[in-house]
Amino acid sequence: MSHSLGVRQAQKQKTRQALLDAALGLLEEQSLSSLGLREVTRVVGIAPTAFYRHFRDMGELGVALVEEALGSLHAMVRAILAEQDGAEERIDRTVAVVEQHVRRYPLHIRFVARERHGGVRAVRQAIADEMGRFAEEVAAALKSQPVSEGWRDDDVRMLAELYVDRLVTTAAALLDADADGAEGAAGQVVQVARRQLRLISIGRRHWREEGRGE
């Protein structure tokens, strides 16, 4: 009996992942609000009613895609920021991680970039929540660095949000550069991202006492 349950559970998980993959492929050229579940189930080869065994609606599927798209990036960037190497080395490695993530998961990144301000409220909120958690994790890593000594928590959080916003913007810009196909466009995006993050880092080191609200 337990073996049969295990087989059914594995099949259910396989079908759920197939729905996510199918939706992601279809979303390359359209928004989630315009995508119907019948389109998704047609690709997977299941009846439309079977969709509801896995998701309540397309919004819930979209939330699962957000978690799939952003969840793995948190730990990678947090680990880099926690290292005690110089600021420039951390910046270079962080940008490289983002670039690698975009190359590996372009459809996920495109989905997040499009739906961040899209028409499905649950997905917008899920993206905002993930970005918030991302900022909290980055803030914790920044707080542990000596240069943050004496900083207020809300200022560290503000700094973390600047970093996170730049990383997300860079990911979207890399996708656009790839779509344009112009020679050297992606390299230019990476170079600009590094300079922007270094500028933020310099500002951090010279943050005045009155700027900290003390």
UniProtKB/TrEMBL annotation:
Source organism, top-level taxon: Bacteria
Keyword list, A-Z: DNA-binding
Residue ranges of every copy of the HTH tetR-type domain listed in the record: 13-73
DNA-binding region: 36-55
Protein name, entry field: TetR family transcriptional regulator
Species of the source: Streptomyces mooreae
Source species taxonomy: Bacteria, Bacillati, Actinomycetota, Actinomycetes, Kitasatosporales
